[in-house]
């Protein structure tokens, strides 16, 4: 179709030299003649060569090229050959054609390609790593969960066996018994030694080494047994081993999950069902994530020009909060003054996904605290407010600046990117608007949020003595008592005024109706292994026979 796009400005009958066609198609004159014959065979043009060298040839357009390509896109969608349309959309073309093709792509989320059930999921953003050690964006974490599995899992607040069929927990020892017959995606059997090497890989990752601070030794006394000896308790470590961060993989590409990684690039991630998965083969054969920067809305149920296909909408309250970080270089009096000036209710009036006022990070524990007004402090310079470029973050930043101005505090707005959040320290930011969505184990995610070097909060505050002592208590306290520890951490946050939760948000996802009913987790994404395409038993044509 690239050949046709190069001619799309031609209408009716027009004169054109072969040299000009060669330039449009970036080919030789001989090859240009071959392309013309191919278009003639498709019934799209009639080519009338000029008589004699240098004479102008004529092309008679038998169809409207743009209309023809849109109809061709409809045919490809029905046949399940949507990948071709993705390739077209990456080429230069008239804006009108681009919009029409995007509109047709709304039908392409769930299709049948021959005998394969496939789902294609477009995205406005390029893809980051799905390696469990580095995946920290909700979409990439959800993809990672489809490829890599942990040794144990969390379900309804309890740690249950997974790759291990049984585990034993003592004061300073964890022992796991690995299921027989589990295969890695490359065909190797899963052994205790591979699990040990996976954990060593995690321990050597500098940003995650804190997960194994208590580990003294990892042993494999039997090919299907793994022992982890600790210097302290085992409760927190066992919980970490149930997280996706600790999923088993020798290299970040090969796992044991229901899907295996077939392709992984910044512009495309392709998963294929793993036929030897120990808990049964998934119902979908292929999940194909493709980067399409021109989408007006991201991923599931995306729409173009305000028009959406048949979708179902689901909303959940995020575990976590949108919050404000106050630079530790500011004095307590300065931080307390800023906190006292902020009216959280006004952020809710901005609408969109803002749900209710936040006084902590866990919605179930979020309670208003009585705070005495501080002695007012006058600032001798404008405060810098850093915010992400997303629409909601920009609105929050403008509202924050407006509230400070009402109290006589000048400020200036500075935008930063998600990529900066991973590596930057932001020492120059007086105030920084951020958001944190805790994953399927919000209790453990809460603990990690405060001490992980992967989070800005962990890098800035995790080693402060008062907070460090509170976090150390999780190592020797059972999960049943963690609520009291959570409250103590959030009390520290409120008393120091380093971090100010603003509001809890809701997450809304739209899914194609053709996938049936879908339950989404805290990450906002479904369990891909449980997705089931819904197909009619007979097509409309066959039902008439």
Give an account of the 3D structure.
It is a single chain. This protein has 545 residues and is an alpha+beta fold. It has three domains: 2-105, Arc Repressor Mutant, subunit A, CATH 1.10.10; 149-256, Dipeptide-binding Protein, domain 1 (Alpha-Beta Complex), CATH 3.90.76.10; 315-506, Dipeptide-binding Protein, domain 3, CATH 3.10.105. Helices cover 30% and strands 23% of the residues. The chain contains 18 helices and 21 strands. It has helices at 2-5, 18-25, 29-41, 65-79, 83-89, 95-104, 138-147, 192-204, 235-241, 332-341, 345-348, 391-406, 418-423, 442-451, 456-461, 465-472, 482-496, 540-543; strands at 13-16, 45-48, 57-61, 110-113, 116-123, 152-155, 158-161, 164-169, 173-178, 215-222, 225-230, 259-264, 268-273, 286-291, 311-317, 320-326, 354-357, 383-387, 411-415, 431-437, 499-512. The strands form five sheets. Strands 15, 16, 17, 18, 19, 20 and 21 form a seven-stranded mixed beta sheet that branches. A five-stranded mixed beta sheet has the order 4-5-14-13-12, with helices on one face. Strand 8 (164-169) and strand 9 form a beta hairpin. It starts with a helix and ends with a helix. Mean pLDDT is 82; it is low at 301-308 and 536-545.
List the helices and strands and how they pair.
Layout: H1 2-5, E1 13-16, H2 18-25, H3 29-41, E2 45-48, E3 57-61, H4 65-79, H5 83-89, H6 95-104, E4 110-113, E5 116-123, H7 138-147, E6 152-155, E7 158-161, E8 164-169, E9 173-178, H8 192-204, E10 215-222, E11 225-230, H9 235-241, E12 259-264, E13 268-273, E14 286-291, E15 311-317, E16 320-326, H10 332-341, H11 345-348, E17 354-357, E18 383-387, H12 391-406, E19 411-415, H13 418-423, E20 431-437, H14 442-451, H15 456-461, H16 465-472, H17 482-496, E21 499-512, H18 540-543
């Amino acid at each position: 179709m690239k050949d046709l796009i190069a001619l799309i400005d031609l209408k009716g009958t027009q004169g054109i030299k072969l040299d000009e066609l060669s330039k449009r198609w970036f080919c030789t004159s001989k090859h240009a003649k071959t392309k013309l014959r191919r278009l003639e065979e498709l019934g799209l043009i009639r080519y009338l060569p000029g008589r004699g060298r240098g004479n102008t040839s004529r092309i008679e357009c038998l169809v409207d090229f743009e209309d023809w390509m849109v109809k061709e896109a409809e045919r490809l969608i029905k046949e399940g050959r949507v990948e071709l349309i993705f390739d077209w959309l990456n080429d230069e073309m008239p804006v009108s054609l681009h919009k029409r093709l995007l509109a047709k792509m709304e039908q392409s989320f769930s299709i049948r390609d021959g005998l394969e059930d496939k789902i294609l999921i477009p995205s406005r953003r390029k893809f980051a790593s799905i390696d469990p050690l580095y995946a920290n964006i909700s979409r990439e974490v959800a993809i990672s969960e489809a490829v890599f599995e942990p040794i144990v899992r969390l379900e309804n607040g309890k740690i249950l066996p997974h790759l291990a069929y049984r585990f034993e927990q003592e004061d300073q020892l964890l022992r796991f018994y690995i299921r027989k017959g589990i295969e890695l995606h490359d065909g190797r059997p899963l052994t205790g030694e591979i699990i040990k090497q996976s954990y060593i890989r995690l321990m050597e990752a500098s940003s995650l080494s804190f997960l194994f601070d208590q580990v003294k030794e990892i042993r494999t006394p039997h090919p299907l047994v793994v022992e982890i000896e600790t210097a302290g308790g085992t409760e927190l470590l066992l919980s970490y081993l149930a997280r996706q961060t600790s999923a088993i993989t020798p290299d970040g590409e090969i796992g044991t999950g229901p899907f295996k990684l077939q392709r992984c690039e910044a512009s495309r991630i392709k998963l294929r069902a793993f036929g030897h998965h120990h808990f049964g083969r998934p119902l979908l054969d292929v999940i194909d994530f493709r980067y399409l920067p021109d989408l007006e809305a991201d991923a599931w149920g995306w729409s173009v020009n305000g028009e959406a296909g048949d979708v179902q909408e689901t909303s959940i309250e995020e575990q976590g909060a949108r919050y404000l970080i106050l630079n530790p270089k500011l004095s307590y009096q300065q931080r307390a003054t800023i906190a006292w000036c902020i009216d959280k209710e006004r952020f809710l009036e901005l609408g969109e996904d803002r749900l209710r006022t936040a006084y902590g990070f866990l919605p179930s524990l979020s309670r208003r605290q009585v705070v005495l007004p501080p002695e007012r402090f006058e600032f001798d310079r404008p405060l810098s407010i850093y915010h992400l470029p997303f629409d909601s973050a920009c609105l929050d930043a403008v509202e924050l600046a407006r509230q400070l101005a009402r109290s006589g505090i000048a400020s200036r707005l500075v935008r930063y990117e998600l990529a900066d959040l991973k590596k930057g320290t932001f020492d120059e930011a007086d105030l920084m608007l951020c958001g944190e969505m805790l994953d399927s184990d919000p209790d453990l995610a809460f603990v990690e949020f405060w001490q992980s070097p992967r989070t800005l909060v962990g890098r800035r505050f995790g080693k402060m003595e008062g907070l460090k002592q509170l976090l150390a208590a999780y190592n020797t306290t059972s999960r049943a008592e963690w609520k009291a520890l959570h409250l103590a951490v959030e009390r520290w946050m409120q008393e120091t005024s380093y971090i100010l939760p603003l509001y809890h948000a809701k997450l809304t996802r739209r899914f194609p109706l053709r996938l049936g009913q879908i339950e989404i987790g805290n990450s906002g994404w479904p369990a891909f292994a449980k997705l089931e395409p819904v197909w009619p038993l007979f097509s409309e044509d066959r039902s008439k026979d």
